[in-house]
Amino acid sequence: MVQVAHPHPFTYVINSPNVCRDQDIYIIAYVHTAPDHYKRRVVIRQTWGDASYYDIGIRVVFVMGQTAGDGKGGQDVQRALEFEATQYGDIVQEDFLDTYRNLTYKGVAALRWISRYCAHARYVLKTDDDIFVNAFNLLRHLRRLDRGGGGDGRTALPGSPRGILLCLVWYSMMVMRQGKWKVSKAEWPDDSYPTYCSGSAFIMTTDVAVAMHRVSYDVPFFWVDDFYITGLLPLKLGPSVVRHTQFISAYVLNGRQLEEKFTGPQWYQYVFSHVHNLDAIQAVWKTVVRLSRGEVQPTIPFALPGHLPKVTAPPSKKPR
Fold this sequence. Notes:
There is one protein chain. With 320 residues, the chain is an alpha/beta fold. The chain has one domain (12-170, 197-295): Alpha-Beta Complex (Spore Coat Polysaccharide Biosynthesis Protein SpsA, Chain A), CATH 3.90.550. Helices cover 32% and strands 19% of the residues. The protein contains eight helices and eleven strands. The protein has helices spanning 38-46, 71-88, 103-117, 135-148, 206-216, 225-237, 258-263, 281-295, and strands at residues 12-14, 27-32, 58-66, 91-97, 123-128, 131-133, 164-170, 196-205, 243-246, 251-252, 272-274. It has an eight-stranded mixed sheet with strand order 1-4-3-2-5-8-7-9, sandwiched between helices. It has a three-stranded mixed sheet with strand order 6-11-10, with no helix packed on it. Strand 2 (27-32), helix 1 and strand 3 (58-66) form a beta-alpha-beta unit. Helix 3 (103-117) crosses helix 5 and helix 5 (206-216) packs across helix 6 (225-237). The chain starts with 11 loop residues before the first strand and ends in a 25-residue tail after the last helix. The model is unreliable at 150-157 and 298-320 (pLDDT under 50).
């Protein structure tokens, strides 16, 4: 019998297999969420996750485990989630407990779902449900990659990028030995981690997601999910299959600067930000939509991600 290091023996409680079926998908976005985060999912569906805003196929699925709550409260959450899934058709839930230490299961669940149901997408976007995404700016960057091949300098046939993992890359990140993210010496003996991505948001070509899912069965479980998914799995696959590409210039690290950064004079640079105030998202999104439609026109060429030029601000009004 073949030994499997990480079997992932979970089954679907709720599945949405038709999200990508019979459609040209440019980006399939999977969002890490929890069963009781209904408001966050609604805000995403009403803003950047609404496919009607784009001239190309963008779809979103919300990935989670089962509520850890016992009794009537947990049952009520599950019933509400099942109703939500019927309404929107974008929920993927497996039967592991949705807890902080099980986030790696959630990441592998998403990779498995993409491999089964959306492997024909060009790109895969991962975000958490407290991340704001300027998908218009993301599309500009990805179309630049389509024209130029790999973001790390490797060339590819026009329109067929492969092997790309685009993210805020952490190099030699120190292992936390105290606090919420405490990792013991028994769990990880080294004082630093190999290269991996910030787990808040990252994007990859779909061949990378499929390869990560395939190799995940050979990589033993590690509970720090961003390191497992974007560090250990790429390390196992090797640089000929996937390489990290720095995209730090696209991230707003202080979520309290959401409005300032995404609607200010250099709005065209930013793609991802944490959100501290859900109520602010709708207003920021409305401005982002107006910017993308040309009420403010950038006057810059878009460079490869991670190498954006310093430029002057675009004019504040669309020329008439």
